[in-house]
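Query structure, 142 tokens:
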């Protein structure tokens, strides 16, 4: 099922805010993720020190290109391969998604309206489904 036009519009509109606050959001997301789901820490054992910056950049790129996902094809492939290398499974996506949405709300405060959070929830799980499908193929090939 494709993303709703409303979610696309909202996510694109938040790209400048995410550019400004993306690193704060991803730092907070990892704090929340590891506090609520300590078992996920092992997935990031080999992550670079600037992992929060890498993720922030990926989120901004997604927001900026959410209406042209073909532009993100190589990034999605790279991410899927990395997820397979680090043993990311479909069960981890809700944990990360919940943590990301909570971090957006905490960092952006009142500007993270219900509409913004709902749009990003739809967008996150839409991309998650794409990654899970590709990762499933990669796991089968391994």
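Result returned for the query:
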């Amino acid at each position: 099922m494709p993303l709703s036009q409303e979610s696309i519009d909202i996510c694109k509109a938040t790209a400048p805010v995410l550019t400004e606050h993306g690193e704060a959001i991803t730092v907070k997301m990892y704090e929340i993720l590891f506090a609520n789901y300590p078992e996920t820490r092992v997935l990031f054992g080999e992550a670079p020190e600037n992992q929060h910056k890498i993720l922030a950049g990926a989120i901004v790129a997604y927001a900026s290109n959410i209406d042209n996902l073909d532009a993100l094809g190589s990034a999605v492939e790279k991410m899927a391969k990395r997820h397979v290398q680090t043993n990311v499974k479909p069960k981890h996506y809700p944990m990360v998604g919940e943590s990301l949405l909570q971090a957006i709300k905490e960092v952006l405060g009142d500007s993270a309206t219900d509409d913004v959070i709902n749009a990003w929830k739809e967008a996150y799980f839409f991309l998650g489904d794409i990654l899970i499908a590709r990762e499933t193929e990669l796991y089968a090939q391994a």
